[in-house]
Amino acid sequence: MKHTALVTFFLVLVFVVTQTVGLGLISSISSDTYIDEEGNKQIASDETTVDLTPTTQGLGSLLYIIIAVGIGTALFLLIVKFNKVGLWKVWFFLAVAIAVGISFKVLLKGVIPNVGLLGYIPWVLGIGFALLKMYSKSVIFYNVTEILMYSGIALILAPIFSMTYAIILLILISVYDMIAVWKSKHMVKMAKFQSNSKMFAGLMIPYSLKKPKKIGHDKKKDKIPVPHEPKTAILGGGDVTFPLIFEGVFLRMLILSGIAANMALAYTMIIVATTTIALTILFLLAEKDKFYPAMPFISGGCFVGWLIAGAMSGIFL
């Protein structure tokens, strides 16, 4: 078992909450549909609520993610190589602020008018949460921000995928994850750099909430006391985001097929359940202090849930 039972429970719990909140936000802006000039049903919120959604569709959406992941990985490895922690902090801050701002924009829709200075409130909250995430010591606040961040990313990216390309995306990401962890091992290097810089992009649950203890002063070696960092359990951001994007695509597909938003959400929660089971199995089978690619397990859970939910709803693609 990779972590203690309690730590595993909380890590899986935050994963489930993230998937549920993200789907809830996607569902909340996906109920209004219209017929476009070409006779296709579209979701009205695509053009009004989430401003940062790329306009690409089909194969272009897949290439968009592949290129983004490739460029992002290359840039991050350069940051790691030259130990540019400051540059990583700027990148981290901007990513969190934008994604959390998107989530707040959806959360506050209908509460605060998106006009004038009021329209900037979600972005101000995004910036505030990003700063607090970087400097706050609260584990709860850290993971709440993670939940909002990954929900925001899914809100941006889910609309550009069809179900077919969402399936292909998970397969490709799973293969990449295995290569990056087991073969090239650059994913491990990236994770360690993030952890050491205190700016980890992913869920994080500490084994203990107590303050770090200090090593006793060694008079012989005249060493300065060094604090013991508490051990933490982590789950990478991609392992949370990609299943949420897949689930969001399935949810939107059901709504565009004529299924009511609340019923579509219920069907999609089946995928959340099977994905959670798959992730839990990984944690139970994994050994301590070893790195594993989580996406093959998570993708497997997504596909099982998709088959079950598709059979129940009568819609697969």
Supply the key terms.
317 residues; mainly alpha; two-stranded antiparallel sheet; 4 strands; 5% strand; globular
What would you say about this model in short?
This protein is 63% helix and 5% strand. It is mainly α.
Task: Report on the architecture of this protein.
This protein has one domain (5-33, 59-209, 228-313). 63% of the residues lie in helices and 5% in strands. Strand 1 and strand 2 form a beta hairpin. The protein is mainly alpha-helical. The protein has 10 helices and 4 strands, in the order H-E-E-H-H-H-H-H-H-E-E-H-H-H. The model has no long low-confidence stretch (mean pLDDT 90). The protein has helices at 5-28, 59-81, 85-107, 121-135, 139-157, 163-183, 186-196, 237-256, 261-285, 295-313, and strands at 33-35, 41-43, 202-206, 232-236. The two termini are 36 Å apart. 34% of the residues are buried. A two-stranded antiparallel ribbon has the order 1-2.
